[in-house]
């Protein structure tokens, strides 16, 4: 399981939709999603892309004049459930 994933951000929703449509038509695994909080707290769309295909995707974007804002590699944060946190706190308080 990867502890990171890659996204491309866009200036406009129209750019994101055009990007998704084009790459899905040529067989790439693209998923539109909200811009991750690690990048921006504002609203917006990003495209989750296969990290190993970054160079090819950027090359195609330049060749086909597909607009985008930036490429980002996002490191996943460890998520702990509230139950595990509660058990840990209770155990520490009882020691």
Task: Describe this entry's structure for a reader.
The protein has 95 residues and is an alpha+beta fold. The protein has helices at 13-25, 54-64, 82-94; strands at residues 4-9, 31-34, 45-49, 71-75. It has a 4-stranded antiparallel sheet with strand order 2-3-1-4, covered by helices on one side. The longest helix is centred in the first third of the chain and has 13 residues, at 13-25. It is elongated and about 65 Å long. It comes from Anaerosalibacter bizertensis. This is DUF3343 domain-containing protein. Residues 5-73 form the Putative Se/S carrier protein-like domain.
Distinctive features:
95 residues; alpha+beta; Alpha-Beta Plaits; four-stranded antiparallel β-sheet; 21% strand; Se/S_carrier-like
CATH level-3 fold name: Alpha-Beta Plaits
> Gap between N and C termini, in Å?
35 Å
Care to count the β-strands? 4
**Which percent range describes the beta-strand content?**
15-25%
**What would the average pLDDT be, to the nearest integer?**
84
Q: What is the second-level CATH architecture?
A: 2-Layer Sandwich
Percent helix: 25-40%
Domain Putative Se/S carrier protein-like: 5-73
InterPro entries: Se/S_carrier-like
Protein name: DUF3343 domain-containing protein
């Amino acid at each position: 399981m990867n502890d990171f994933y890659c996204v491309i951000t866009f200036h406009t929703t129209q750019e994101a939709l055009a990007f998704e449509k084009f790459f899905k038509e040529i067989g790439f695994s693209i998923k539109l999603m909200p811009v991750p909080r690690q990048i921006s707290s504002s609203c917006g769309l990003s495209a989750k892309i296969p990290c190993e295909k970054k160079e090819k995707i950027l090359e195609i974007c330049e060749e086909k004049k597909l607009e985008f804002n930036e490429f980002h590699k996002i490191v996943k944060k460890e998520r702990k459930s509230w139950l595990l946190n509660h058990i840990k706190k209770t155990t520490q308080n009882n020691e």
